[in-house]
Structure formats: structure tokens, C-alpha cells
Specification:
By secondary structure, this protein is α/β, with parallel strands linked by helices. 39% of the residues lie in helices and 14% in strands.
Length: 266
């Protein structure tokens, strides 16, 4: 039987990314009637192949899971006894809710609009354009691409989740200095490509950054990286592979630069 998901916040970027891919993977989505016209128009090509994948929400039934974005005003009231998934960023703020699994996104790329990370990357673009160096945080990051996150969330929607926390974060530790070095190189090449003013350093092969996979249960990482044990165990049982994000940081940063350049260029 197909998984049934009610979109409580259908306009949020994460909800729309889940909708776009989930419709092609057998999930039937229910959206507020007021949002249907815009969604049907936006996803017309997918709906042509999967016409029953998006339906107007009418009444609750026991097969439905409600997908809620933390901090967003709900467009649908979630029944008290309904199963639901709450997606938020960073650590859980407060106690866990019953009948809910809590999906936590850490260091997501591209960053969400108007988030602190989006503002940080905007400041990095200015610093790189001015051949400067921005102020860098000292805490490490565990960058994770939306193209790895969304399939994992869809598997959670299709499976039997528990009322617990499922963290989604990269398995590798990135210092901000290393992240800035990758970002600056890519932005300089992007600017050179737009102007046609390539210098030797723009064309020089920098090599592939060293990659060291961190074991999910590594003791030395438990104080820094969010625990991936619950997520890994669930996905390993579902897919046989566990939580193994594969998108390279450079590819993620290229999308970050392209998105910000399009959104904020004058």
C-alpha cells in the first residue's frame, strides 16, 4: 500500500523538495485545497505521469502521516492521535512530542532562505569578490546536501518510524577554513567564467580534498557530530545501505553559489 503524507506546510522549500521526489517514489501527498492550484501547476510534468500522487486534503484517516515544518504556521490542523513527522534544523528544542518522529537537519546545503547560513555564504561571496577573507566560525561543520537528505526523509515517510530523533548530517568533519577554501576557489572560477578573465590560478587543478569517512558509532565524534545511529539503523534495515550521503561538498557549494548569484545579483 502506498504511503500517504499530508503536507501541513506545502509552501516550504523542504516540503516541496520532498513532494517533487516523493511523488515519483509511490508516496501519495495530500495538500490543503487552497494550495492545490499552485502545486498542480508547478508539478504538472510529474503529475502527468503520476496523476494520483497529489490530492486535496479532505478528511483524516489512520493511514496518513502529517509532515510538519518546525516553526511554520500549519495550514492543516493535525489530529491529536495522528502520526506526524516534524522536520527542523539543529538540535531538538524542548521535549519530544508523542506520536511524532523528529527529523533534524544539520548543516544543510543549499541553506534555507533567510537562514544564518545563507547570510554567511552571502558574506563569503562579498569577501571573495573583494579578494578578502571573512570572519570564520571555529566550530566544525557536517555539511549535508539536500539531494541526500530528501531520499532519506522519503524512506522515513514510507517506513515505520518511532517517536524519536532522526538526525541527518554529513559523516565527515569540515573545518570552516577548509570550507572557505573550497568556496573561495569555486567563486573565483565562477566570476572568471562570467567575465572571461581567466588567470592561471583559476585554471590550475587544485586536486580533490582529502576525504576520511567517520564511522557512525565513533566514540571520538559523539561530542561534536549529531548522533547518526538511529537514522543509520533505520535506513540500513530499509535499504541495506544505511545513511551514506554521497554528494561532494564542491558540488553542493557550486549550487549554493549559483542559487545566491541568481537570487541576489542586481
Amino acid at each position: 500500500m502506498s504511503a500517504a503524507c499530508v503536507l501541513v506546510n506545502p509552501g516550504h522549500p523542504i516540503a516541496q523538495a520532498i513532494l517533487s521526489r516523493g511523488m515519483m517514489e509511490g508516496v501519495v501527498f495530500h495538500a490543503p485545497p487552497a494550495a492545490m492550484s499552485e502545486l498542480v501547476k508547478k508539478y504538472a510534468s510529474v503529475l502527468a505521469a503520476f496523476p494520483s500522487a497529489l490530492q486535496a486534503y479532505d478528511v483524516h484517516n489512520s493511514t496518513m502521516d502529517y509532515l510538519q515544518i518546525e516553526g511554520e504556521a500549519p495550514q492543516i490542523t493535525i489530529p491529536v492521535d495522528a502520526r506526524h513527522m516534524i522536520i527542523g534544523t539543529g538540535p531538538v528544542d524542548g521535549s519530544l512530542k508523542t506520536n511524532a518522529c523528529h527529523v533534524r537537519l544539520h548543516d544543510l546545503l543549499p541553506p534555507l532562505p533567510n537562514s544564518n547560513d545563507e547570510r554567511m555564504f552571502l558574506s563569503w561571496m562579498k569577501a571573495s569578490r573583494d579578494n578578502g577573507t571573512p570572519m570564520l566560525e571555529q566550530r566544525p561543520r557536517y555539511w549535508c546536501d539536500v539531494n541526500d537528505v530528501v531520499p532519506a526523509i522519503i524512506e522515513l515517510l514510507k517506513g515505520e518510524t518511532e517517536a524519536t530523533v532522526y538526525n541527518l548530517a554529513g559523516r565527515r568533519t569540515w573545518t570552516m577554513e577548509a570550507t572557505w577554501g573550497e568556496f573561495d576557489t569555486l567563486f573565483q572560477r565562477t566570476n572568471a567564467g562570467k567575465t572571461g578573465r581567466f588567470e592561471f590560478e583559476h585554471l590550475e587543478a587544485k586536486g580533490i580534498p582529502s576525504v576520511a569517512v567517520v564511522e557512525v558509532g565513533a566514540v571520538e565524534q559523539t561530542r561534536q557530530r549529531p548522533s547518526l545511529t538511529t537514522t543509520h539503523a533505520f535506513l540500513e534495515a530499509k535499504t541495506g545501505e544505511g545513511w551514506r550521503p554521497t554528494t561532494p561538498l564542491r558540488r553542493s557549494l557550486m549550487v549554493v553559489i549559483a542559487n545566491l548569484d541568481e537570487a541576489y545579483s542586481s
